[in-house]
Amino acid sequence: MEGLEREKNLRFLKSLFKRFYEQEALFEKISAIKYREFGFSTLEARMMIRHLSFENENSLVKFLSEKVPADCYRSTAYYLNPSAMNMEEKEWLGADLVFDIDADHIQTSCKKRHDRWKCLDCGENGYGSAPENCPKCGSKRIDEKAWFCSECLEAAKMETVKLLEFLDSDFGLTDQEISIYFSGHRGYHVHVESEEFKVLDQDARREIVDYITGLGLDPSLHGLRDVGGEEYLTKILKFSAWAERLMRNGYDIILKYGLEDLLRIGVKDKVALNIIKNRERIIDLWWKGKFNQIVGVDGKTWDSIFLEAVRKGSVLIDTVVTADVHRLIRLEGTLHSKTGFRKVKVLKALESFDPLKEAVVFKRGEVRVHVYESPDFRVGDSVFGPYSDVDVELPISAAVLLICKGLAHII
Ligand SMILES: [Zn+2]
Ligand SMILES: [Zn+2]
Question: What top-level class would CATH report for the domain 219-313?
C-alpha cells in the first residue's frame, strides 16, 4: 500500500472511530474504575500509552472521543495508585481472574483455506499457517496474512463453553461472578470478579491454568486406571470433576472415533478394529467401571484414549494472560483496530450468540474501496467476496474490516 492510500485509510478510520466514541460508546460500568490502570494505542503510530487512570466513566469517554485511540485497554488489577509509573508505586491490591481464548491458537481446518503466507526473500508462498522457515530458501522473513471466519469463531466459542463448565462445576463460581465477552476479533474473554480469586498471586493462577489446560494430568491419580466396579467409579466421579470429564470424553472416543481417528491418537490398528467392532459392549463395561474385563484393549491403548480424553476435556486458553496479575486487557465496549468490531458482552446463551452480528458497529452507509485480495467473509447477514484486485462498493462495516486487515484502501 502506498503512503497516500495509507493516509486516506487512516483519516477514514479516525473519523469513524471518533464518531463512535462521541455518540455510540455506551459503556457498561467498569467495577472499581478509579483503581484500574488504562492504556491506549494510537491510530497514527501504533504506540502504546499506559499508566493512565480515570475517576469515572464520564472522564474516560471524554478522553476516548478526544484522543480516538486505535485500541483501548485496562488492567485486570486494582491498584491504590494506578497512574504511578512503576509496579511498586502502583501498590497492587488484587486482580480479576481473566481468560483469553483466541482462534489463532486453535488448529482449525479452515486456516488452510483463508490464511496465506509469502516469503519476503524468495517469493515462495502458500496457504495455511506460515511455516517457521521458508521451505524453499530457509528465510525466516515470512509475511503472514491470517484471516478469521465463522468456523474459527465457532471453534473459539466451543472452547469458551468448556471453560464456563470448569468455572461452574470445578470452581463453583456463580453466573453473577462471570462475564463473557466477544473480543472484537477472533475470540472470547471471560472475566471473573470474585473476592476469593482476586487475591491470588501469579503462582496460584498458574495452578489454575495447569488445571484447566490439563497439564501433567495423570488419569491414574484421578482413580481411573484400576477401577474396581460401578460403586467405586461412582465414588471417584463424585470426588473428581476431571475424572467425570475423562469418562465422558473417553465414552465419546470409544463410541464415535473411526479407524483413522483411533490410529491418529496412537491406538494400534488391530486394537482399533476391535474397539470399532465391539463399541457397544465396551461402553457398557466402561460405565460399569469394569475396564479390566474389556478384552483386547491393553493398558497402552487406555493410556492413548485417556490422553486424548484429556486433550478433548482441557481448554485452549492463553496461559500467559491468566497467570499475569498486571495484565492489560481490551476495554469493554471499545473498538478493535484489526476489525472495526467492538468488544461486546454476551448477554444471551453463548451457543446462540453470533459475534459477526452482535459486535458490528458501523451499520449505516456504503463506501467504495479497492480490495487487493480477500477470501469470502460474512458481516451480519451478508456474505462478501472473495475479491482479487477489484474496486467494489461495500457496506461500511465490511469495508472497515478489510481496511483494518490491510487488504483494501479507500478510493
Ligand atoms: Zn524463501
Ligand atoms: Zn476460519
Answer: mainly alpha
